[in-house]
Design a protein that fits this description.
The protein has 11 helices and 18 strands. With 373 residues, it is α/β, with parallel strands linked by helices. It folds into 2 domains: 179 residues, FAD/NAD(P)-binding domain; 140 residues, D-Amino Acid Oxidase, Chain A, domain 2, CATH 3.30.9. The strands form 3 sheets. Strands 1, 2, 8, 9, 10, 11, 17 and 18 form an 8-stranded mixed beta sheet that branches. Strands 5-6-4-13-14-15-12-16 form an 8-stranded mixed beta sheet. The protein has a two-stranded antiparallel sheet with strand order 3-7. α1 runs parallel beside α7, α1 packs parallel to α10 and α4 packs across α10. The chain is globular. The relative contact order is 0.20. Bound molecules: flavin-adenine dinucleotide.
């Protein structure tokens, strides 16, 4: 105690908390970020493939697709600003993406997807044959029957994103506290009191960005939300002399190549609680998926495997002030798309802090809509 209250205290140092802390600190407010692990971005964020793929991830038009596109549009400039602020290059690659299928039954779904996406003004090719798809990615396997080409899709290096955000945030004044687990938040007069072990920190506003955790904090705030961890396993392969020009996104997973030459093959979706482990079954499934899409990956060096827990909420992302206490802002449930959605989430949280009310873009994701109130 004894310390002056922070304007804003962010709980959770994944990509969402880091992005919010940097954004808010840049407005001149005093900000602290509390992260339980000994380094930032060590949970879901570190596991991510870094695709910024609204086109492949959204299944229908609507608020989620709009939010994802808005964030994808923010990304190029965001990457440049992070480089300028931190000196860390997040390896933004506007590679493009092929959404391919090996099943004749899925072709109709791709055509439906294409129709609504075209109507939404997204850049997408007509349905392409294997031969046509191979003009983009010559190594595609013979089982691929058809696909769509999205030239505008990009990807970034998720570790570097966390590193860049942590550095940029610190330079903007964020007090980054690692190995600091928050056990509760409660109102104390016109301030909020945040417990970290025996320590009590005071803040005017608190942002909860605890990914697949934080249930205890939420319960203490009277919030009946329980982000469910959905495990994703990932393989890393180091092929010799295989430039993979685009992201290849199939029915069961995707492969993409990072600037270093490393190829990532991901990801499983498993509901196994908080077990962030890799398994033989998971690795075997990903290996089969990768070889089907790109048979030439078969002889690639196996460079490693990891797993992370995606924070899933049935309602989709929940972003904005709590109905029961507007000083507490949630930024939770980014599931498969937290890297993609980080810039827009940070912007919307900053706007809700500045305006003291929900920005219009947040209505569909508002805790008020999801929790009532
Ligand atoms: C295999 C895999 C592939 C993925 N690929 C992509 C992709 O290509 N593109 C994309 O956009 N997204 C992808 N994602 C999803 C993305 O990783 C998540 O949506 C994103 O990381 C969520 O960020 P977060 O900050 O909410 O959660 P996290 O990164 O999990 O961060 C939450 C943080 O809060 C901390 N915390 C929790 N409780 C407390 C507490 N009580 N006190 C202090 N700290 C606490 C945790 O230690 C953690 O660091 C992928 C995920 C996985 C697993």
């Amino acid at each position: 105690m004894g310390e002056a209250p922070f304007d804003c205290l962010v709980i959770g140092g994944g990509v969402i908390g880091l992005a919010v802390a940097r954004e808010v600190a840049r407005t001149g407010r005093s900000v602290a970020l509390l992260e339980r692990r000994s380094e930032p971005g060590a949970e879901a964020t570190a596991a991510a493939a870094g695709m910024l793929a609204a086109a492949a991830e959204a299944h229908s038009p609507g608020p989620f697709f709009d939010l994802a596109r808005r964030s994808a549009d923010l990304w190029p400039r965001w990457a440049e600003r992070l480089l300028a602020e931190s000196g860390v290059d997040v390896e933004y690659e506007g590679s493009g993406l092929l959404r391919v299928t090996t099943s004749a039954e899925v072709v109709g779904d791709l055509e439906i997807r294409r129709a609504w996406q075209l109507a939404q003004g997204l850049e997408v090719s007509g349905l392409l044959s294997l031969e046509e798809l191979r003009r983009e990615v010559p190594q595609l396997g013979p089982e691929v029957v058809a696909g769509l080409h999205y030239p505008g899709v990009a990807h970034v290096h998720s570790h570097r994103v966390a590193e860049a955000l942590a550095l940029a945030g610190t330079r903007a004044g964020v007090r980054l506290r690692l190995s600091a687990e928050v056990t509760g938040v409660r109102a104390r007069g016109d301030l909020l009191e945040v417990s970290v072990g025996a320590e009590r920190l005071l803040a005017r506003r608190v942002v909860v960005a605890t990914g697949s955790w934080g249930e205890q904090i939420l319960r203490g705030l009277g919030v009946n939300l329980r982000p469910e961890p959905v495990r994703g396993q990932m393989l890393a392969l180091r092929p010799r002399g295989l430039p993979l020009p685009e992201i290849v996104f199939g029915d069961l997973g995707y492969v993409l190549q990072k600037r270093s030459g490393l190829v990532l093959a991901g990801a499983t979706e498993e509901r196994v609680g908080h077990l962030a482990e890799t398994t033989l079954d998971g690795v075997a499934r990903l290996a089969a998926m990768a070889r089907t899409l790109i048979p030439e990956l078969g002889p690639a060096e196996f460079s490693g495997a990891w797993a992370g827990l995606r924070p899933f909420l049935e309602s989709g992302p929940v972003i904005g002030p709590l109905p029961q206490d507007e000083r507490v802002i949630l930024a939770l449930g980014h599931f498969r798309n937290g890297i993609l959605l980080a810039p827009v989430t940070a912007q919307l949280v900053r706007e809700s802090l500045e305006e003291g009310r929900e920005p219009a873009g947040l209505m569909a994701f508002s805790p008020r809509r999801i929790l009532g109130g």
